[in-house]
Amino acid sequence: RSSRVVEIQSQMSERAVELLGLPEDRACLLLDVGCGSGLSGDYISEEGHYWIGMDISPAMLDVAVEREVEGDLLLADVGHGIPFRPGMFDGCISISAVQWLCNADKKSHSPPKRLYRFFSTLYTALARGSRAVLQLYPENSEQLELITAQAMRAGFTGGMVVDYPNSAKAKKFFLCLFVGTSGTLPKGLGTECASEEPQQAKFTNERTRFRNVKGKSVKKSRDWILEKKERRRRQGKEVRADTKYTGRKRRPRF
């Protein structure tokens, strides 16, 4: 690997561990999802923490073994779930790996199901009050929504922290997830001088978009129904096709 790639990987690992907000007075056990050759693990070890790395690539894990990394390594597809006992980890990081779960490499693969399996088992494996910080390269906003929707469905709260949102090169997405507690979402780097608008996506239960002028929700309107159906499709659920009758009120029968 080029030294530039290694440097970027190290910086992102450092940032991900920082966003975990780990206690300073004790060593923690972390899970590294998509650990590859163990570059993130090196940083975790330097910080005095312990780690277990999971990766789907035997070749990458062989490199990690050759490099004599300090963490334990596991060859596994995270789309099949996280095979550890409940509450085992004090945190989880992942660098540039989770977006691969959006790809259906085999006919049997369903991205929403694989993402949900990953997030729901990760939620179980993490100690209450801990965090998962997943750095990812989303292809588009649909992919981002698919990933975050499955994370929230699995019970996580939190949202996206975007570092350097105004820079094409330095812009980085970190999905910052909380287990069992609703923490305050950290601020993205390089956002101070950007704009007063927060750069993070927050997940709230408010549905404020479908309000008419008087402040009443236009729930059950055609637009509302179409958007809801589209959301469910993105989550991989079966939804009836849209027709000219979608959202149309039925006349009362005599």
TrEMBL record:
S-adenosyl-L-methionine-dependent methyltransferase that specifically methylates the N(7) position of a guanine in 18S rRNA. Requires the methyltransferase adapter protein TRM112 for full rRNA methyltransferase activity. Involved in the pre-rRNA processing steps leading to small-subunit rRNA production independently of its RNA-modifying catalytic activity. Important for biogenesis end export of the 40S ribosomal subunit independent on its methyltransferase activity. Locus-specific steroid receptor coactivator. GO terms for biological process: rRNA (guanine-N7)-methylation. Its main location: cytoplasm. Keywords: Cytoplasm, Methyltransferase, Nucleus, S-adenosyl-L-methionine, Transferase. It is found in: Cytoplasm; Nucleus. Residues 216-254 are annotated as: Disordered. Coiled coil: none annotated. Residues 31-107 form the Methyltransferase type domain. Residues 177-251 form the 18S rRNA (guanine(1575)-N(7))-methyltransferase Bud23 C-terminal domain. Residues 220-229, 236-245 have a biased composition (Basic and acidic residues). The gene is Bud23. GO terms for cellular component: cytoplasm; nucleolus. InterPro entries: Bud23-like (IPR039769), Bud23_C (IPR022238), Methyltransf_11 (IPR013216), SAM-dependent_MTases_sf (IPR029063). Heterodimer with TRMT112; this heterodimerization is necessary for the metabolic stability and activity of the catalytic subunit BUD23. Interacts with GRIP1. It comes from Nesospiza acunhae. Belongs to the class I-like SAM-binding methyltransferase superfamily. BUD23/WBSCR22 family. GO terms for molecular function: rRNA (guanine) methyltransferase activity. This is 18S rRNA (guanine-N(7))-methyltransferase.
